[in-house]
Backbone:
């Protein structure tokens, strides 16, 4: 691909993305945590307050859920968005949530602080353009089988609209290995730092698909230079409507946060 | 995935999809041919007439082109659609073309006889729903790294709207092999026949990325039971705005058609 | 890899490999059939005679079996080799069988007509050298994740000994798809024809791992230009000590041979 | 996977492997460093002393080199082994080196402290048995496309001989991504800890294929719980006979060792 062209900043400066009071790409490692899907108002507000107290910097939760089968739970939509906004009011945590359809961008942008583009939509170019035009910060997940180059060029679709508030999220790629849900490409973290000016975070929950693997892989990401983490936490993973097996309990999340602190310090960051 | 649920027909009947005067899934192997992208009016009409004379059953051509980089040629859009419709008037060949955005479904459906969902959008669920609702026949390409199950469940999103006019298209999956653009999963042809009631065709052009590989792989597909082929033909592949290296010249297309005839007969089909 | 160097024949001639009275790479498509593992004397002789009558050109069967777990059945070794030789005496079919250890090459070469290098050993370079030095015809299976280039360079290890009697065997590569045991790379057939002077055959049994997929994929291989097929047949697949699910019954093998005949003719070959 | 059987230790104890004065699997993270291939006596002794002074715990270097092409440099063989033994005398660092042929095990075991099984030979079962029988500690690299299960079952071939001195080495798997040489499966580190009693280390040099990626990925491995690292260091990477692009200079190795120290401490280990 000789026509490759990534936008560059002057003097090789790096982009810092600002979401509410949070800065991604600066000295602090930002932990975005929350349930896979928004399942109910009280549950969400309760877990959000707990996560805030444990050190989470942002709240994640899905209102629109992409599901492989049309017969699975597909999210609470508008209702879910309102609950997320309410949880932000209560906790002060900025909210990141997925948008799947270009026609929903305006609606989601009304409630969320950051728009997430999921893996399946990484090359949904009209959606990329629309979130770019919204001016909101964007979290761009890597496609299941996207090369680094394709991922960075997808980001370029957003950057080309003039919106530079883009954070990349490695979330595991599809390989032959089946013990894990996906294969976390840990090298993607330093590779993005080498090839692009954008911040990059890691999602160990989707990346591994097994909650026991989440803490060691989260630690690996911080050691490798990640600017943040996206972690699924559910009060009762065994009852979750989606992604239970990869969700941490609040207790395990607290334990992980405690372990991450000295690690972040060891690589010159805070958390 | 225990929740797997594919719709079934009574008595294990198989679906036949009707596009204009063409039937896909019946005794005839349908060859859809044309340029990757619509590049100009005269060129399109001229090549369409040639393809028709050589035995093509449908015309393919892109008006909206998904491109990895935002800086590549992205298609003629509305103008391209009109040219395709005009080529149909002249030749009588039904037209299949890609739609990438749910908001364009109505527009594309006005001009095309069959709506194509490209690989990158196989799990763009709102788009699947929209083409389903349009009532038009749909050509659903397999995602670059979609399992057979995910592909069939994506089809289910369309079937769930009540629109059963769906044809599946294997177009190569992403593997470690780089000599070919993708790896054609030839077993997908009999696998779809085993698992689903829908017709299935093969795209050897995208599947291999090399025009010299197109004829042998096209023959393999017919021998394996494919209901059709999707083949890129360009009057001057070396000047094509996209996908030149994988396009056949009209001469080579004619040669392939001649070779396919006895093969189709050998497996009890016509072409 | 800039140092790539494949040996070439003068005038782009193609190699024909002679095994007993059989020629691989000539006008005839050679079908090598037999059980995965040699399990017993009488069973082997009985099935060999049946296969011979049905049109098989060579007999396959494993005496040394590579197994993922050390606790699985690992073959009858010397006893198995003697049974294979006896089956050849009875039927006249040349025998191909796997050798896994450089120290066994002499022993296996004493009984077999063609030495098979299995997928796991494609880059076992000292074994390649040893089978090369034996002067016997070699069947070189593609490694599970070998690129075309690595496969052809592995062949080069044998050719470099002066032994040019090498047949390549595509047997499926490892990908993310799990419905099939491996993914048959059908394009490998014409690709080898393009890049090398060596004959190439296909093993649809290991390639698909499902007996129902074997006939359509075998037909695809012949249509794509394969010089032969390697097919597992077992009198009672449900009782096989290994690879039962991918073995044809003799009845299904007969049916396949009947279907292959007109196909071979349609591509200008006999079977 | 019903026949899966991994040996277990009583009370879920973990194995510690002893190589000379070095313990792998204990509190210390062991760094094995050295050139890809032994290229000459003086160069090797000189670099070994430097690495020792910088904190390396073991010396690595290839005497027998598996090469994709038979026309590449294939190692100094016996001469290389003697140089490695001499470097050990001078520095006191235990030596790990690859053995590729069952017939060479006795020879290599005479000079080396630990026998390495390379990726290409992970399922070379007669070689596994032979290194098992040698009684020497073994470093078992993961095959290029081996699942966790296949890797652990390959280890079982060695364990079944009664030799329990086995260390596993993740070195990247083959995926579609081509910017890196392989894709480091970082989750393999905690996965091995979960599924097996054996120590596990990581080779970021082969895993990434780019020296700039080696330090961040080495740090990720330590954070994820690796018991050691295998790192290529060459005095002049641009002149290396193999693997130059992925080799660190001694200066960069020193820098990495300095950065690893606080990280190891942060996860409760020393280095």
Residues:
């Amino acid at each position: 691909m000789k026509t490759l062209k990534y936008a560059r900043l002057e003097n090789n400066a790096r982009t810092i993305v600002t979401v509410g009071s949070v800065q991604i790409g600066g000295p602090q490692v930002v932990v975005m945590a929350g349930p896979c899907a928004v399942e109910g108002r009280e549950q969400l507000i309760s877990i959000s307050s707990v996560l805030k107290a444990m050190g989470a910097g942002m709240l994640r939760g899905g209102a629109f859920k992409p599901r492989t089968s049309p017969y699975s739970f597909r999210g609470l939509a508008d209702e879910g968005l309102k609950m997320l906004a309410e949880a932000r009011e209560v906790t002060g945590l900025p909210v990141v949530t997925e948008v799947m359809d270009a026609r929903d961008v305006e609606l989601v942008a009304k409630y969320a602080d950051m728009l997430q583009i999921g893996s399946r939509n990484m090359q949904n170019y009209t959606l990329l353009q629309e979130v770019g035009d919204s001016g909101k910060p964007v979290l761009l997940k890597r496609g299941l089988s996207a090369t680094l180059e394709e991922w960075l060029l997808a980001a370029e679709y957003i950057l080309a609209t003039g919106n530079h508030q883009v954070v990349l999220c490695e979330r595991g790629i599809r390989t032959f290995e089946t013990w894990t849900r996906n294969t976390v490409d840990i090298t993607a973290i330093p590779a993005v730092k080498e090839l692009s000016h954008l911040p990059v975070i890691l999602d160990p929950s989707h990346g591994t698909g097994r909650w026991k693997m989440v803490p060691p892989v989260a630690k690996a990401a911080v050691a490798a230079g990640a600017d943040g983490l996206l972690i699924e936490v559910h009060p009762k993973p065994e009852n979750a409507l989606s992604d239970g097996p990869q969700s941490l309990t609040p207790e395990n999340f607290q334990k992980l946060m405690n372990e991450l602190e000295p690690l972040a310090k060891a690589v010159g960051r805070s958390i």
User: Anything to note?
Assistant: The two ends of chain A are 38 Å apart (CA to CA). Residues 250-266 of chain A form the longest helix (17 residues).
